[in-house]
Write a structure and sequence with these properties.
The structure is a homodimer. With about 375 residues, chain A is of the alpha/beta class. Helices cover about 45% and strands about 15% of the residues of chain A. Chain A is globular.
């Protein structure tokens, strides 16, 4: 028996009770039953995003709501400043260019970050810039960007700050209203412990003002129109009913745990994972603040990181992820977000020790587990 | 005990075995397991759409792929001819206008259809029209439009025919290649017996040619880019994994039944339903070819159709649908698509008899069931 374990940086495991809730007979979306479900989910999302604004759901994956944030707040020819320090930063550039926006990329080598000072300089150089686009957690490199800092330097300008929180919502603290973030977008398959297929977008007052004059074309992803339905406890188009049922379940679980505890849990899992891999002499890929959602690890010299990911799957029935794009072969990524707990981390590290030994690396068995245990013991 | 029955014109019931298949632990989408699943689903979709073209899936509801068909094949300022004889015809107009297209609406009173001759005349009057947009089954009125006829008159022109098959795929025969339809779009929650959240789009060679020069902006719904991933057995963005697992299950069920039998089943259910409601002296809303997906019924004089729909739910735990938009209060709609069989029809009709009697109508108990039984007996 090799128990199946999903430890990739998304999709993440779905709790069995949530899977079974979603397996209940499907209900119609224009009924009192659905309305009650939707109202609870809608309110729970506001708590999770830490905002008084509506959090508008869409049936789509994360990239759909990235696009939604752009097309609802910007107009053709607008200039946007984009933090590009990973594959998802590059995705913001692709979306912006697809809609004819002028892109000012602020690049950093993958694994590093872009400082708020650089964003401030770019805003000063481009006073007509209408938006700053950034990830919170960049899933391709395992870096957590300084969204609080970006918000501080964007606040006094005419630009809005749009944040991809796909791998940070319910993982890393992102108090939208308190920090002054203008758009937060996220999906269902990371911190929310659900299958992929739901996206969410929340806009600040400043972003809603911008939405009034936005000329980029949209229909399915029209957040302003959808919000009118949300206000009536409805969905404009047929919603992904089974995923919304699951959403209510996971929001209850997160509320029971308490949001502060959820963030602490992820922080502890991330610190334990980093301590474990470093105890094996491995190098972290992140050379800036690491993300609490995942840990990107540089493969030992002479070993293809894809071979490590393949061994996790083949020998231990554990799905992790290799590197994306130019990081393929160099980096493997361990997810510890969503439905993830201490002994999952222990499992991942123990498996890593076995795999490195199998690949001919010198391994002090138990070293990574010991390092993780010490993190967990320090309460 | 009142057994819950979903008999709305979508979402439709999901078979328990499919619900349980979707409740299996979530898998990652960049694994051999997902690839095998995706390849089977992709091939099954081609059989269902009766095409040699790729059927490209998206995580979205039906309206998302309606929009995808427009933005991938048309350019700003293009003229489109739209069949508007129901709420979903109006949706085509809204999407086209959102993208700055010139709309030539061919309207008919709701409950009626637009003949292929009218489409041919419009194409002759607007030789630069780039597309004809139509529903196959118009779910708001219960009418089946003559897509075969539309294809015949569009084929020799520069226009492409884009068909919303959301409530006809796997319900009414729509041989895309044989009829020469240029774009077929559909969703998961009707004939496919799945929860909402998956959409599909297939384009003909003529439509793919058009896609090469289409200038409307798109990113998430870029069918040409997505098709390159489909060809490698992949998804560009995180797919709705659990729904794709369900998709494989329902495609196996439909293949086991045989596509011709699937269409026959829906036709029989529709004929039995119509015979039943007419046996009660009720009038069908469709004054053109009725859809095999649903039956729209005019409420008896002096009775609000919403009261009938409410009684189905309150007194019998059966969800049906009332009328949309201006048909609200006048029309109720009985769905008989997807996971629907003979005794579901009997149940719906028996409940309708009870409800009409409760509302003070004279009812010959058993009359509608008898009429339906005769249809089923005539094999």
């Amino acid at each position: 028996m090799k128990k199946y374990q999903l430890m990739a940086p998304g999709p993440t495991p779905v709790p069995s009770q949530v899977l079974l809730a979603m397996a209940r007979p499907i209900i119609h979306h224009r009924t009192p039953e659905y309305e009650a479900l939707f109202v609870e989910a809608r309110d729970g999302l506001k708590t999770l995003v830490q905002t008084r604004q509506d959090v508008v759901p869409f049936a789509c994956s994360g990239t759909g709501v990235l696009e939604a944030a752009v097309v609802n707040t910007l107009s053709a020819g607008d200039t946007v400043i984009v933090v590009v320090a990973g594959k998802f930063g590059e995705r913001w550039v692709e979306i912006a260019k697809a809609y004819g926006l002028q892109v000012v990329p602020l690049t950093a080598p993958f694994g590093e970050t872009v400082s708020p000072e650089r964003v401030a300089e770019a805003l000063a150089r481009h006073p007509k810039a209408q938006a700053v686009l950034a990830q919170h957690s960049e899933s391709s490199t395992g870096v957590l960007h300084d969204v609080r800092g970006y918000a501080a330097v964007t606040r006094g300008t005419s630009a809005i700050l749009i944040v991809d929180a796909v791998s940070s919502l319910g993982i890393a603290d992102l108090p939208m209203d308190a920090w002054g973030v203008d758009a937060v977008v996220a999906g269902s398959q990371k911190g929310l412990m659900l299958p992929p297929g739901l996206g969410f977008a929340a806009l600040s007052e400043k972003a809603w003002e911008r939405a009034k004059t936005s000329t980029l074309p949209k229909y399915y992803f029209d957040i302003a129109v959808e919000r009118r339905f949300v206000a009536r406890n409805e969905a404009r188009f047929t919603p992904a009913v089974s995923l919304v049922i699951g959403l209510r379940e996971v929001l209850r679980m997160l509320a029971d745990e308490g949001l502060a505890n959820v963030f602490k849990r992820h922080d502890r899992l991330a610190r334990a994972t980093r301590a474990g891999v470093e105890a094996l002499g491995l190098e972290l890929f992140a050379r800036a603040t690491p993300s609490p959602a995942l840990t990107a690890v540089v493969a030992p010299r002479g070993i293809d990181s894809e071979a490590i990911a393949a061994a996790f799957s083949r020998d231990h029935n554990i799905t992790i992820a290799g590197g994306q794009g130019e990081m393929k072969g160099q980096v493997f990524r361990l997810g510890h977000m969503g439905y993830a707990a201490e002994f999952d981390t222990i499992t991942a590290l123990a498996a890593l020790e076995q795999i490195l030994a199998d690949l001919g690396q010198p391994v002090d068995f138990g070293a990574s587990v010991r390092a993780a245990q010490k993190v967990f013991a320090a309460r």
